[in-house]
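Now for today's protein.

===
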Amino acid sequence: MIAFERLNRNQRRAAEWNGGPALVLAGPGSGKTAVLTLRVARLLEEDESAAVLALTFTDRAAAEMRERVEQILGEYADRAKLCTFHEFAIDLLGQHGSHLGIRPDFQLFTQDEDRVAVLEEVLRNRFGGGPGMPSDRTNLLHLIDRLFSESYGGAGPSSSLASTPEWLPSLFNRYRDALVAANRLDSGSLLHFTNRLLAEKPAVARVVRLAWSHICVDGLQDTNRAQYDLLRLVAPDRHHNLFVVADDDPVAYCWNR
């Protein structure tokens, strides 16, 4: 049995919410993650057909959610996927990435030195550069990462740069293509290709939406544009059971009001 008695009135109202999409705002340390975890456990306990996707931003937070749900539900917790955005992307691309030329055995870059090597190959063999291009390859990678995080599509100006160098879109596209050719992805490209997959392959998107009856997000305030777009692709309509919690300084500690 789920112990709701340790929740105050507002926390319990959030944990028991059944009315479709919901945004819960509260300050740091006010129990948002605990409420989300209890909500996940309640949904699974009350409905044998429920399947919950809960997304967060750090491995530590995801592990904490998994541990709490497993303590409450035991083996029934396997109907919940509690993970980071990047873990979700890895799983989805492992299953369906072949639609974009990504093989299921793709590997992740963990060192910038390896990414620099891919960038060097692009610059040496496939790209002539342009005026104003930084000579520091790490700075170039930071620019590419910025484009990934803003959900850049590969054409036109960047929404996060005051001015977009003429060479940048081509460099971005060639670097992205080089990752696919090498079957190795980096952190930013994981979300980029996941969003492309869901946007360009309606059948895959439909399978994902049918797989999860409820979607929960811990720490919405930390989302970048690519992560926000991922949520919109997974739960595009107002009828989806999307439940998100976020910090909001003007209403800090609203549980205690």
The domain at 14-94+202-256 is CATH 3.40.50.300 (Rossmann fold). The chain has a mean pLDDT of 89. The radius of gyration is 20 Å.
